[in-house]
Amino acid sequence: MDEDQFRKAAHSAIEEIISYRRSLPSRRVLSTVQPGYLAPQLPPSIPTEPEPWDAIQPDIDKLIVPGLTHWASPNFMAFFPAHSTYASMLGELYSAAFSAPAFNWLCSPAITELETVVLDWVAKAMALPESFWSKGEGGGVVQGSASEAVVTVMVAARERMINRLTEGLEGKEKEAKVAEVRGRLVALGSEHSHSATHKGAIIAGTHFRIIPASKETGFAMTGEAVERVIKECEKDGLIPYYLTATLGTTSTCAVDDFEGIKETLRRCGKDAWVHVDAAYAGAALVCEEYQHLSKQLEGMDSFDFNMHKWLLTNFDASCLYVRHRTSLTSVLSITPPFLRNQFSDHGLVTDYRDWQIPLGRRFRAIKIWFVLRAYGLSGLQSHIRRTVKLGQYFHSLVQSRADLFGVVSGPQFALTVVTIKPLPPTARAVQNELTRKVYETVNKRGEVYLTNTVVGGVYAIRVVGANPTTQEEHLRRCWEVLVEVGDEVRGEMPPGGGAR
Ligand code: PLP
């Protein structure tokens, strides 16, 4: 493809993208294709001869779009949102054009320096403790995902604990002690922390223990619960080295008791690394009304949130902040001769490869920069506030049919979690089955897309309408669909249970 062909193809692709996005409100959110739909429609091997863009482009609409789940639809209310915006897409375009796996500063100084600046901008906007800003001993780095951030800091936490417990030892004695300590390390996370913590413990090769977080505490992990599990770990000879605390759990958007957890760790004399996973809800910290939570991050070892969930930026843009950057770089920095250069050797620059697991990295800061400038802080704030209000609106609709809906939690960070109540005299014991049936029927219709969860043994439906194009009318329609299906399904349920 030469310049002229690129120009023509790019213009046409952009027109097509705009009309795709315009069409989203009227499309089914969920695809109807069956597993394996694609391969039979594609040739069995690479075309031998080059194909012009005019031949390639029509296949997007014909073959790809039918197999898409439309995450950018205003009717996408499942999981958490994964935003994409035009400003951010332009960033992706430039990132592709500059094509630099900028692992070292020297590999493209602008890429590294812009990342440091935009992450400081974001830290400042969110009133994160200054220990997370780059001017001190901490700083931020853009990772691919919140899960990647968890694994990265877990490895740093593991090595920090091993180093502390083997300090002063040498040679074989040290080797033996390291092996012994490694086998006893345990990572902790609440029963509602994201599965990334369990997965991270597997990757880091350590034990993992779950801390209960019940309905009584709003599904938030408390200091007392942490203390109980730490005591059990001690009895079992395990050493807690890492804990995930969550700001906005996946199931209900609960916020763990940060102060209580810090106090417990202090009292128990544990220097476990505390990572705050704020993958979705962290975005709300751009608004002053949520910044009491930012203050509570003081003393935490790391904090991560995804701009690509709720802050108008395309996947992937996970912002990880650490209090001591050396806790990452001292563990993850390995420098073969081909990576050496005068700037890195003299410690004049940041080499983000030492803050992450892979070597190569994408130029993600440019899309963040575009988003921050194109929306401004006021634009980011009004987006968060508008979607939080949409959550409140949905909750008010739910309350207007209190005979049909039970509220498990919310509205919290735009998320409301509901159950469907059986008609009296049907036993409440069938509520889970009823809610599951309603959930499955709604998604089968495909007009809106929702996800389910199970909290405290209760099967529930999560509704989070927080896309930039989502309006009250979409949440009202979602509520109407739930009411239609809910009334229908529970009407079919015989007293005593067992939906027909
Ligand atoms: N942490 C929390 C609280 C989440 O809700 C999610 C995903 O929704 C994740 C982590 C994983 O995010 P990612 O897909 O960026 O790894």
Provide tags for this entry.
500 residues; alpha/beta; dopa decarboxylase, N-terminal domain; Aspartate Aminotransferase, domain 2; Aspartate Aminotransferase, domain 1; seven-stranded mixed β-sheet; four-stranded antiparallel β-sheet; 13% strand; binds pyridoxal-5'-phosphate; decarboxylase; PyrdxlP-dep_Trfase_major; PyrdxlP-dep_Trfase; pyridoxal phosphate binding; pyridoxal phosphate
Secondary structure elements and pairings:
Layout: H1 3-23, H2 53-56, H3 58-64, H4 86-98, H5 109-125, E1 139-143, H6 146-165, H7 171-184, E2 185-190, H8 195-204, E3 207-211, H9 223-235, E4 239-246, H10 258-267, E5 273-277, H11 291-295, E6 302-306, H12 307-310, E7 318-322, H13 325-332, H14 342-345, H15 365-399, E8 405-412, E9 415-420, H16 431-445, E10 451-455, E11 458-464, H17 472-492
Parallel strand pairs: 2-3, 2-4, 4-5, 5-6
Antiparallel strand pairs: 1-7, 6-7, 8-9, 9-11, 10-11
Bound molecules: pyridoxal-5'-phosphate (PLP).
